[in-house]
Write a sequence for this structure.
């Protein structure tokens, strides 16, 4: 099940892809991580899906990542007397705390936190930006707005406040319950929605206590403004382009995607590019040319992973969508421009021994045209550091911990193998060579470079390089 590409694929599970057979087919087609969206999934169903994924994992012998995506706060209007109203450009429209059904002049907004945050001149977006309101007067329990872009307002449509930081936790009561259930089930990654500030990440990490890693979904302008602080705490980022495109001008989203991809590369933290990547494949067996270009751009930029949402969860062609994304990634990485772009983005290593070792491993592997870079990694940090350097040869991460292998499933270029820890340096080298041969990364007579920490099994202690020949004993298994 060796992948012929470095970028990873995240596939969302849903009505079209919730059987054991389909999950196995999606994995065979190229999915490396499966996403479970808790906006549409009960705890029992989540546990069932994780169990099916673990069965596929056992059958294939490859660690598979599981990403649980929390819903986050949902800010919505109240109801309307007739179910909906139409507002026109220039109209005055009031939002207040009166729970009575709304009309063409006012509506109930059951979120005091919004009233506390907005000020005159701020914008409110209704129903994914279809209606745009500009606040002209803000009071503690009432705001008067002018309709900047008119349209239809209907019951419980979503409200976005792009100019304001809402004083509300990213974790609702539902999210806390979903998070505990996911942690008890043993998932690998938690995607945190509605992130506005680094404190949101800190709150989630206080609960997870290392039982799962936190992926910050960047879907609000406030998070973009504080990206550096958020990256310091988060374990990975997701470019949630759908919500970003609602809350900021659409034309800015590609630049934000590029900013996040490069920031993730510089810090050695995985970045997943998500939303509408192959949207037309929800109902069609082939994507548009523009969608192919969109996926290719993310791969060219060095994103760790690209994600399918409704395409694999509810579309008619989930397996074809994964296979298409797989082919695009393979073709991009064969392109002559790909390696030039990846090399040009390389950041200066941090002034630590571990980062210097990872940089040296990449340089040696590229210079000597070695067959693979093999990392012995207990916590996954060695694999992350080497992946940050984007070496030309494939990266094989050997770990005694299944959880580490699963977490690395989202990381660029890393092929994880779970194996018992090395007994000594000789065992470390000989077993690395045997596994590289067995997994199809090296042939007899080729050389590999081995990166590890000594003493063996010490998390984060990347301090050793070793070049080794793959000898005939690897082929014979001796």
């Amino acid at each position: 099940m060796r992948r012929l590409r470095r970028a990873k694929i995240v596939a969302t599970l849903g009505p079209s892809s919730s059987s054991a057979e389909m999950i196995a087919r999606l994995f065979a087609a190229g999915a490396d991580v499966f996403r479970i969206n808790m906006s549409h999934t009960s705890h029992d169903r989540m546990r069932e899906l994780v169990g099916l994924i673990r069965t596929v994992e056992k059958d294939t012998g490859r660690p598979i990542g599981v990403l649980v995506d929390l819903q986050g706060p949902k800010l919505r209007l109240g109801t309307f007397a007739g179910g909906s109203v139409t507002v026109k450009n220039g109209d005055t429209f009031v939002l207040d705390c009166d729970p009575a059904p709304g009309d063409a002049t006012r509506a109930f907004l059951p979120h005091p936190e919004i009233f506390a945050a907005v000020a005159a001149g701020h914008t409110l977006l209704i129903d994914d930006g279809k209606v745009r309101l500009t606040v002209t007067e803000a009071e503690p329990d009432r705001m008067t707005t002018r309709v900047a872009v008119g349209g239809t307002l209907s019951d419980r449509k979503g409200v976005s406040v792009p100019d304001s930081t809402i004083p509300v936790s990213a974790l609702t009561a539902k999210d806390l319950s979903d998070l505990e259930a996911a942690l008890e089930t043993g998932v690998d990654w938690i995607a945190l929605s509605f992130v506005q500030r680094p404190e949101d990440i800190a709150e989630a990490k206080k609960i997870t206590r290392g039982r799962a890693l936190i992926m910050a979904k960047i879907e609000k302008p406030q998070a973009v403004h504080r990206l550096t602080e958020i990256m310091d705490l988060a374990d990975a980022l997701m470019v949630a382009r759908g919500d970003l495109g609602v809350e900021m001008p659409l034309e800015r989203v590609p630049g934000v995607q590029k900013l996040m991809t490069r920031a993730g590369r510089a810090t050695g933290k995985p970045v997943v590019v998500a939303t509408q990547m192959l949207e037309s494949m929800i109902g069609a067996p082939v994507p548009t040319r523009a969608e192919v270009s969109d996926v290719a751009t993310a791969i060219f930029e060095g994103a760790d992973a690209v994600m399918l949402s409704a395409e694999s969860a509810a579309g008619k062609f989930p397996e074809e969508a994964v296979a298409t994304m797989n082919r695009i990634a393979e073709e991009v990485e064969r392109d002559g421009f790909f390696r030039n772009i990846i090399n040009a983005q390389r950041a200066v290593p941090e002034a630590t021994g571990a980062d210097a070792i990872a940089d040296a491993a990449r340089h040696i592997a590229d210079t000597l045209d070695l067959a693979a870079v093999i990392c012995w990694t207990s916590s996954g940090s060695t694999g992350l550091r080497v992946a940050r350097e984007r070496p030309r040869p494939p990266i094989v991460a050997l770990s005694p911990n299944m959880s580490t292998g699963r977490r690395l499933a989202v990381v660029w270029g890393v092929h994880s193998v779970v194996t018992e820890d090395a007994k000594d340096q000789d065992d470390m080298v000989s077993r690395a060579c045997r596994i590289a041969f067995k997994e199809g990364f090296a042939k007899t007579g080729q050389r590999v470079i081995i990166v590890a920490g000594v003493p063996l099994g010490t998390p984060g202690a990347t301090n050793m390089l070793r070049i080794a020949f793959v000898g005939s004993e690897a082929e014979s298994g001796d």
About this structure: The first helix runs from residue 20 to 29.
